TrEMBL record, chains A, B:
<keyword id="KW-0547">Nucleotide-binding</keyword>
<dbReference type="InterPro" id="IPR011611">
    <property type="entry name" value="PfkB_dom"/>
</dbReference>
<dbReference type="InterPro" id="IPR017583">
    <property type="entry name" value="Tagatose/fructose_Pkinase"/>
</dbReference>
<keyword id="KW-0418">Kinase</keyword>
<dbReference type="GO" id="GO:0005829">
    <property type="term" value="C:cytosol"/>
</dbReference>
<comment type="similarity">
    <text>Belongs to the carbohydrate kinase PfkB family.</text>
</comment>
<protein>
    <submittedName>
        <fullName>Tagatose 6-phosphate kinase</fullName>
        <ecNumber>2.7.1.144</ecNumber>
    </submittedName>
</protein>
<dbReference type="Pfam" id="PF00294">
    <property type="entry name" value="PfkB"/>
</dbReference>
<dbReference type="GO" id="GO:0009024">
    <property type="term" value="F:tagatose-6-phosphate kinase activity"/>
</dbReference>
<feature type="domain" description="Carbohydrate kinase PfkB">
    <location>
        <begin position="12"/>
        <end position="285"/>
    </location>
</feature>
<dbReference type="GO" id="GO:0044281">
    <property type="term" value="P:small molecule metabolic process"/>
</dbReference>
<dbReference type="GO" id="GO:0016052">
    <property type="term" value="P:carbohydrate catabolic process"/>
</dbReference>
<dbReference type="InterPro" id="IPR029056">
    <property type="entry name" value="Ribokinase-like"/>
</dbReference>
<dbReference type="GO" id="GO:0005524">
    <property type="term" value="F:ATP binding"/>
</dbReference>
<dbReference type="GO" id="GO:0008443">
    <property type="term" value="F:phosphofructokinase activity"/>
</dbReference>
<keyword id="KW-0808">Transferase</keyword>
<keyword id="KW-0067">ATP-binding</keyword>
Length: 309, 309
């Protein structure tokens, strides 16, 4: 199975309102709730592609209970979340029906105790024994050491399980030192990590910091991959209109699926970019549009990049 | 005991953010949760004043469970909520730390089934047997007939229990026909009910529609009461700076406390206005500042109103 780690899981709540006006009162016309956090989203996409997936990380309190109840309703995803005494966070996305704009409110995560972090590390090591790949996804809740991802990446490498890291800020800066097999930053994370806004230079720099492969997601410009086997750009067919929520998580799911199926890099990138684009096109935030995905698979342009100076 | 009815209970969530900017992402710096809905707020104030209070209405789903857990932590309040299959709503108040402004997001309530409404009416009638007064508070959830408050007021009157009504819109328009002993509209509700923006005229008109007494809450201008024993204005000492959230619910609590203690109207109004003002002054939304309350009791100005033409 593929293992995804979400240390800062969330219950993602979406409110639809006609238009958000600060300092006024709104009747919410529609409420939706789903289990969230990057690794949970990645798992949902992998399961939809037919992969066996296990989700681990932390869950606690009333919101944690709701999260696990909802997760149990997702076919193909196994729940191996570790209980904590704190309360899992909620995120509230307020979607304006008129403009389509989204206002995001993210609660802080629960504080993780020392014993809880140790319990997680043990559970993680046990789960690695039957994992074909592992993805370390998203932010760290308070109480988890900032070097957590470096340590989890090393444990995975010691167990012979390829590891993908998708995070930001200090967790990314420290995590890359754990030498993950694949790093998946977006343009902003890449610039923050390397100080460079030039994608090829920054991607190469990120790789030199410890990652085996860096796949930089550049939004409408697709992805740029610097791998031990070569460099490629993969670009969706045209500018896509839709909701980019979850597009990065679908990209990660595509990269993991291609990794465990041992596809050559150009095929992995095609799949990942098609999934990501099909997520932008889906009417439901974070889900992918399957017919669009099938169709996009034949329309992603992959080109080899020449060696830079 | 005093009975308060909240058909559309809520879990009130407050998020503090530096400043709410539509279509951007925010980290919430502080999350607070408490059981809410007007009748629940009224009950909390009554209990703090030393009265025995029972809360009824509906609660269901995960949010209903959290609401009841939180309610159990409030000393002096008895939970007699009726379970429903739907999920109790949440409200989210987003408070700007910089400006102090509040943006309110209210989920719709659960749809109440016919059998659930019948079960409530039975429970309500049983509770009236030991009630010294009842308050019917707030909006009606979907599925409850718009004439619900008129019917509940009639049941209370038949049981010899004085009844106060505090609601708005169609529920108010229809509810007043049930001849509640006390009606507590604010200026906006009064204008909506009567079509008049002139407080004395509108208050008299509201009384003619069926209420025994009308106590109109006019914000910083205090209250105007038209009762069978006379007319009074009661005004707090000065313009109060603070958060008006819950000031109306504290006013209702003061009126109920004065009613069951059979205080003369001027004393009831003094108490109600002092409580309401002490709620505006409290640093915690919806709580009252007890020292301020004690001090304000001596500083509310009550004046008899001459008969209007």
């Amino acid at each position: 199975m593929i293992l995804t780690v979400t240390l800062n899981t969330a219950l993602d709540i979406t409110y639809r309102v006609p238009a958000l006006r600060p300092h006024t009162s709104h009747r919410v016309s529609e409420v939706t709730e789903r289990p969230g956090g990057k690794g949970v989203n990645v798992a949902r996409v992998l399961a939809a592609l037919g992969h066996e997936v296990t989700v681990t990380g932390f869950a606690g309190g009333t919101t944690g209970r709701v999260l696990r109840d909802r997760l149990a309703e997702v076919p193909g995803v196994l729940d191996a979340l570790v209980p904590v005494s704190g309360t899992t966070r909620r995120t509230v996305a307020v979607v304006d029906e008129r403009s389509g704009g989204t206002t995001q409110l993210n609660e802080p995560g629960p504080v993780i105790g020392h014993a809880e972090w140790s319990a997680f590390q043990e559970a993680y090591e046990d789960l690695l024994a039957s994992a074909s790949a592992v993805a370390l996804c998203g932010s760290l809740p308070p109480g988890v050491p900032v070097g957590a991802y470096a340590s989890l990446a090393r444990t995975a490498r010691a167990a012979g399980v390829p590891v993908l890291l998708d995070t930001s800020g200090a967790a990314l800066r420290r995590g890359v030192a754990g030498r993950p097999d694949v790093l998946k930053p977006n343009a902003e994370e890449l610039a923050e990590l390397t100080g460079s806004h030039e994608p090829l230079r920054a991607t190469q720099d990120a790789r030199r910091r410890g990652a085996g492969t860096v796949v930089a997601s550049l939004g409408p410009q697709g992805v740029l991959a610097v791998t031990p086997e070569g460099r490629w750009r993969a670009v969706p067919p045209a500018h896509l209109h839709g909701n980019p929520t979850g597009a990065g998580d679908s990209l990660v799911a595509g990269l993991l699926a291609g990794l465990v199926e041992r596809l050559p890099w150009p095929d992995r990138l095609t799949r990942a970019v098609a999934l990501s684009a099909a997520t932008v096109l889906s009417p439901v935030a974070g889900e992918f549009d399957r017919p669009a995905y099938e169709e996009l698979l034949g329309r992603v342009a992959v080109t080899a990049e020449a060696n830079a100076a």
